[in-house]
Each structure stands twice: as structure tokens, then as C-alpha cells.
Specification:
This protein is mainly beta. The protein has a domain of 93 residues: Metal Binding Protein, Guanine Nucleotide Exchange Factor, Chain A. Helices cover 5% and strands 36% of the residues. The chain is built from one helix and ten strands, in the order βββαβββββββ. A hairpin with a 6-residue loop joins β1 and β2. It starts with a strand and ends in a 28-residue tail after the last strand. It binds zinc ion (2 copies). The site of one zinc ion (ZN) has 9 residues, from loops.
Length: 136
């Protein structure tokens, strides 16, 4: 179980991570929404999300295929999920409280990466998000 908190601390969340499923995402949507060169996402079991605190501060940016959730007070990007909340959930590594154990196992959307970003050479590179294990 992971615990996360936004920058201002008004939102606290918990979710069940999928063991080892941590990816760096270099897609343009992550770059824009995080205001960063890439985002590191911890894949979690869809439907496992629990908001401990701050539900009223949670703001969703809805696109047809994905919802990007953030804190309306401090702007922290918290997680992404499928519109039905049942087929995909990922939590941004930056908001996870205990994060030392999370190491990316893949670089995703490498075709869209910023020129200056150095990719990890010891892990696989993907043009998209890799397939999730069956059952998730
Ligand atoms: Zn906040
Ligand atoms: Zn992305």
C-alpha cells in the first residue's frame, strides 16, 4: 500500500501498487501536465484508490481516454486514471511519501522525450506504455 500527499498537504491518498510496475513517461501530455521533462508513474491496482483527506480539493482534468487529477490548491499532479476508474490507475512518484523502494523498470514514450533527457540504459525503452500484466 502506498501513501501520498500533495505539496500543501490538504490531499492524502492511498492505493495498492502493482509490485515493480514503475515507469518513466516522456510523453508530451506528461511533460505539459507536470511542467517537467518527464514523470515517474507507479502503476496501481485500479479501484484501489482511497482519498484519506481533501476530496473537495481534488480537481480532475478529463480527456476522452484519461483523467489527470491534481490538487486545486497547490497544483500537485497526483495521479492518472481511466474515466471509468476501473481499468487504469497510476500515482505520480513525486507525491508518494515512502518512495525509496521505487525504481523505474522502463522508459516510455521515448520518441517524445526532451532532447536533454538522458534515458536509463539499463532498462527497456518503449514507444508507448507496455502492456500490463493480465488481470490488471
Ligand atoms: Zn495540495
Ligand atoms: Zn506520459
Amino acid at each position: 500500500m502506498i501513501k501520498g500527499q500533495c505539496l500543501c498537504g490538504e490531499i492524502e491518498l492511498m492505493a495498492e501498487e502493482l509490485p515493480g510496475m514503475v515507469f518513466n513517461c516522456h510523453c508530451h501530455r506528461c511533460q505539459k501536465s507536470h511542467g517537467a521533462a518527464y514523470s515517474t508513474q507507479v502503476l496501481c491496482s485500479p479501484g484501489s484508490l482511497q482519498l484519506q483527506k481533501g476530496k473537495e480539493q481534488l480537481k480532475e482534468f478529463r480527456a476522452p481516454t484519461a483523467v489527470r487529477a491534481f490538487c486545486r490548491n497547490c497544483g500537485s499532479r497526483l495521479m492518472n486514471y481511466s474515466p471509468d476508474k476501473e481499468s487504469y490507475l497510476s500515482v505520480s512518484l513525486g507525491v508518494i511519501t515512502e518512495r525509496s523502494e521505487f525504481t523505474p523498470i522502463g522508459e516510455c514514450y521515448v520518441g517524445q522525450k526532451q532532447k536533454h533527457t538522458q534515458l536509463n540504459t539499463g532498462i527497456p525503452h518503449f514507444e508507448k506504455l507496455p502492456e500490463l500484466p493480465a488481470g490488471n
